[in-house]
Amino acid sequence: MPRFLQGWLADVIRFSQQRPEVYKTRQRPIYSLKRNIMVKKSEGKNPIIAEFKRKSPSGLNVNSDIIEYVKFMEANDVAGISVLTEEKFFGGSYTDLERVAENVSVPVLMKDFVVTEKQINTAYSLGADAVLLIVRILTERELISLYKYAKSYKLDVIVEVTNEEEVEIALRNNFDIIGVNSRDLSSLDLSLEKAERLLKLIPSDRIKIAESGIRTRDDIHRLKNAGADAFLIGTTLMQDPNKIKELI
Ligand SMILES: O=P(O)(O)OC[C@@H](O)[C@@H](O)c1c[nH]c2ccccc12
């Protein structure tokens, strides 16, 4: 674990390392998040990945019905669904992922702090189509190894960056989907300006997903102008799911 991780991030990584694997035979086809983002773009829609999360270290606390939420988002033509499966800080579960995968036919991202192959095994068997790898919490060797492991299951992998150094790591390893998080996971500071700056460093041959802090069409417009292909939105939609109609 990189030396500078402290506080809640160190705890969440320790919990993730110890988390038991859940195994079942996958029943679901794999839906390509990457392809769905491109399809929505070609249709002139904003490719939105709607996230279900009950709580977060930055203060969210909403307990909506998960299946009602994801079915509503699917009906409103989102490019994908993100399911927080981290238990301690985000109130998620692997059961949430399993239930969502059984109820929607759009790409599903398992949103968690992936640090072991066991977590990728679990994502695949429960029906996820994509996983997140967070540069901040992995060494470059771990990142490359877990990326290759996830790709061996034909899963899409979003490699998440929050600063210039992490963008450089993502670019030199030819990762094809890069998530730019406006929120710094260590400080929890939120900055769309930072996201715009980082997005402009990433060439257009990568799929770029802007994550966090997106509240309005203007936010989407400015991130799109900076090069974002898709938009991962949690809090705004958890607080008012109907907002999807003005953002899509
Ligand atoms: O609720 P917001 O501000 O729309 O953010 C959603 C998503 O970007 C955020 O939950 C997130 C992005 N990367 C993460 C990594 C782990 C946990 C959570 C996240």
From TrEMBL:
CDD domains in alphabetical order: IGPS
PROSITE patterns cross-referenced by the UniProt entry: IGPS (PS00614)
Span of domain Indole-3-glycerol phosphate synthase: 4-243
Any GO molecular function: phosphoribosylanthranilate isomerase activity
Pathway(s) where this gene product acts: Amino-acid biosynthesis; L-tryptophan biosynthesis; L-tryptophan from chorismate: step 4/5
Alphabetical list of InterPro entries matching this protein: Aldolase_TIM, Indole-3-glycerol_P_synth, Indole-3-glycerol_P_synth_dom, Indole-3-GlycerolPSynthase_CS, RibuloseP-bd_barrel
Pfam family, one: IGPS
Reactions accelerated catalytically: 1-(2-carboxyphenylamino)-1-deoxy-D-ribulose 5-phosphate + H(+) = (1S,2R)-1-C-(indol-3-yl)glycerol 3-phosphate + CO2 + H2O
Family matches, as Gene3D superfamilies: Aldolase class I
Any GO BP annotation: L-tryptophan biosynthetic process
SUPFAM superfamilies reported for this sequence: Ribulose-phoshate binding barrel (SSF51366)
Keywords: Amino-acid biosynthesis, Aromatic amino acid biosynthesis, Decarboxylase, Lyase, Tryptophan biosynthesis
Known EC number: 4.1.1.48
NCBIfam families: PRK00278.2-1
PANTHER family per UniProt: INDOLE-3-GLYCEROL-PHOSPHATE SYNTHASE (PTHR22854:SF2), TRYPTOPHAN BIOSYNTHESIS PROTEIN (PTHR22854)
HAMAP family: IGPS_A (MF_00134_A)
Entry similarity comment: Belongs to the TrpC family.
Name of the protein in its database record: Indole-3-glycerol phosphate synthase
Organism field: Stygiolobus azoricus
